[in-house]
Automatic annotation (TrEMBL):
Belongs to the peptidase M20 family. One of its GO terms (biological process) is purine nucleobase catabolic process. It catalyses: (S)-ureidoglycolate + H2O + 2 H(+) = glyoxylate + 2 NH4(+) + CO2. This is Ureidoglycolate hydrolase. Its main location: endoplasmic reticulum. Keywords: Endoplasmic reticulum, Hydrolase, Manganese, Membrane, Metal-binding, Purine metabolism, Signal, Transmembrane, Transmembrane helix. Homodimer. Coiled coil: none annotated. Its cofactor is Co(2+); Ni(2+); Mn(2+). It is found in: Endoplasmic reticulum. GO terms for molecular function: hydrolase activity, acting on carbon-nitrogen (but not peptide) bonds, in linear amidines; metal ion binding; ureidoglycolate hydrolase activity. It comes from Crotalaria pallida (Smooth rattlebox).
Amino acid sequence: PPHSLEPISLSSLSLDAQALHNQFDELAAFSDSPAPSVTRVLYTEKDVLARRYVKNLMGIAGLSVREDAIGNIFGRWDGDGPELAAVATGSHIDAIPYSGKYDGVVGVLGAIEAIHVLKRSGFKPRRPLEVILFTSEEPTRFGMSCLGSRLLAGSENLANALKTTTDSKNISFLDAARSAGYAKDDDISSVFLKKGAYSAFVELHIEQGPILEDEGISVGIVTAIAAPASLKVEFEGNGGHAGAVLMPNRNDAGLAAAELALAVEKHVLESGSIDTVGTVGILELHPGAINSIPSKSHIEIDTRDIDEERRNHVIEKIHQSAIKITKTRGVKLSKFSIVNQDPPALSSEAVINAVETATRELNLTSKLMISRAYHDSLFMARLSPMGMIFIPCYKGYSHKPEEFASVEDIANGVKVLALTLAKLSLQ
Ligand code: HGY
Ligand code: MN
Ligand code: MN
Ligand code: MN
């Protein structure tokens, strides 16, 4: 095969589109909700089956596979310089309830296929290449987004918090991890990677927005990832009989939650920027009976912005509104906790250039853009230079079963990723 320092001949880039297409269908079958939706939650039986499926694909691609204490999975292809810091790529395969089969998966199956593409072309890496399946990117089970990549990036307080974290069924994180064969011992700080562990990290992902499809552009080159934050809020009131308690005598925790949800929308719209977003995706009432005044409410708020200050200001105002509601409605604010309040991340110029060159060599149109969704790349950026490659998805749909990316778009993304990895491996 040509020495690793020679550029790859583009004509040699061959991709097995049919195999890749079948893999999306096969992986989507590991789901706790009926097709075409996908539900695959951290450490559940379907998650474990899906992990096994991906580890098998890594083996077939000739990658040497290792797993860390919480189930981040690494597939490595050593090159001429095995002692050099590797170039890494990867994404997640966990899927929020009733979502689609491309979010995250494109960056895992696509990365493995990119390895095949490079091997078929006869490329020999100089820096090792590593494909990472991050143990869970979605906050579904334990309320923490990007659990795997946060820990790889060395989050001490998350490692401590996980010793006492439980899911909604009161199963502890460590017991859940152990049921999936991980976390042999309590200390999960073994997961932390050292800075410089990778020379670069690139993630392939669907855009989860409509811009590329609307503008007929093949590839998005991410310049920055928006700053995410999530809050958990609970109100308490006296509850009581829906017929017997007259309106002036009520302190309805359910209405307090409803008012706060509308306040989230108000504060976000007042921010003065279209880039500020806020969502109340979880609103639970206790006891949840039609004829019982809610005595407890639990709401979870997701708010993001590309401007961290502006986002933090919205959080302040949400907190003020929560306190005001306790006064006007006579309820108790029994919880107001900020689960995560992360800064944005900027992509590295070097990685952006490598992706841009790859799209040009492949004659693909591309566009610089920000990512409004968060990704494991947000935390990998704390370990090494980072970049992301977006491909179009149908009407920008994501986090719902109609999510779709065409084989052509996936193939473009895989080829851009393959060329980008090759360039970064030779640097
Ligand atoms: O919510 C997000 O931004 C990611 O898709 N989980
Ligand atoms: Mn199909
Ligand atoms: Mn997602
Ligand atoms: Mn994702």
